C-alpha cells in the first residue's frame, strides 16, 4: 500500500492512494467471489488482497506438501464392489494412479497390476483366479482391457 502523506499537497499522491485502494478492493472481491461459502466466511475479514492471497497461498502450499500421502492412502484404501460398474471403478483407480504420478511418485507396474487384481470385487473371483495362473507378465493397459472384455 502506498504510504499516505497527509501533509503532502500534491493531488497525485492522493489520487495514487485512491486508485490503489480501489484496485485492492476489486482484487480482494474478485478472489473472495471465487471462494466456496465456508472459505469466504473465514477470509471475509482480511483487510488487503495481498494478505488474502498470502493466507490462501500458505494454506494450500502446506496442504499440497502432504497431498502425495493422501493419493497413496486413496490407492491403498481403494475397494471395488460388485454393485458398481467395473469400468467406472477402473476409471476411478486410474485417476488415483494419475494423482500419484502427478505427485512425482513412481510405483512399479508389476506391483500396480497385482494390487489392482487384488482389488477386484468378489464377483470377479473367476477372472481373478484366471489372472493368478497366467504365465505371461501383465501390463496395466492389458489388465484394463481384460476387464473391459470380461465385462
Automatic annotation (TrEMBL):
One Pfam family it belongs to: Retrotran_gag_2
PANTHER family for the chain: OS08G0421700 PROTEIN, PBF68 PROTEIN
Protein's name according to its UniProt entry: Uncharacterized protein
Organism: Microthlaspi erraticum
